[in-house]
Amino acid sequence: MLARLSQDPELDGCREIALREAALADRRWWRSRTELDGLLAESAAYALQQRDRLHPEDVQGPIGPDSIEWDAPGGTRAYVRQEYWHWHNVPPGCGPCPPEDPCPWHAEHGTR
Predict the structure, then answer these.
(1) What is the tally of structural domains in the chain?
(2) Which residues contact 95 (CB under 8 A, 6 or more apart)?
(3) Buried-most residue among 6, 21, 34, 98 (CB within 10 A)?
């Protein structure tokens, strides 16, 4: 199942699936710590990051997929964790807000 999306990062409308599969693969690795699960998690994370580079309008977290922040070992999986957190916690359609006029969610939780 994980290899399905990693083969084509340009699949339109599948970001949520790619994100959830990458997050699941990362959780599997955290539980097993096996080399195979690590490779699957890295592959799924890389596929999401590549897809987000092609579609930057879909990125939800404050640090984009091209940032050097993700170049360190484990960086692609850290990118998945950032994106999954924002997907899971920030209301749909809530984009970056100017500090002087935040939406209700960002007023309560801080701007990104």
Answers:
(1) 1
(2) none
(3) 21
